[in-house]
Specification:
The protein is of the alpha+beta class. The chain has one domain: Winged helix-like DNA-binding domain superfamily/Winged helix DNA-binding domain (Arc Repressor Mutant, subunit A), CATH 1.10.10.10. It is 42% helix and 12% strand. The protein has four helices and two strands, in the order ααααββ. The chain has helices at residues 17-29, 31-45, 51-57, 66-74, and strands spanning 79-85, 92-97. A two-stranded antiparallel sheet has the order 1-2. The termini are far apart.
Length: 104
């Protein structure tokens, strides 16, 4: 099993049982890998965006992409950038980059 087939990356043991069930279903249907690839592609297309900006701009519900970004950061596939005011929420939020795009 790799990152794209392990349901525990989407739900913590402390999450509600429904979240754990949903994570298992995503892994079983292959949707888990698709959503992470989608998140990676969104970062490639819009480096420096917050999760809320990526979701709103691309028609996803809040949290659908953000959860995948955390997994991608933890696996080293993308980098969490600096914090800035999010254009969607108005709150301070991390930006996301692929490794070649992160400003120095």
């Amino acid at each position: 099993m790799d990152l794209f087939t392990q349901p525990h990356v989407l739900a913590r043991n402390t999450d509600p049982e429904t979240s754990l069930i949903a994570a298992r279903e995503l892994a079983a249907t292959g949707q888990l890998g698709k959503m992470e690839l989608t998140a990676l592609n969104l970062v490639l297309m819009s480096p420096g965006s917050t999760s809320a900006e990526l979701e709103k701009r691309n028609g996803y519900e809040r949290g659908q992409i953000g959860k995948r970004l955390s997994t991608l950061v933890n696996s080293g596939r993308i980098i969490r950038g600096d914090k800035r005011k999010c254009n969607i929420t108005g709150k301070l939020a991390f930006t996301h980059y692929t490794k070649p795009h992160k400003p120095r």
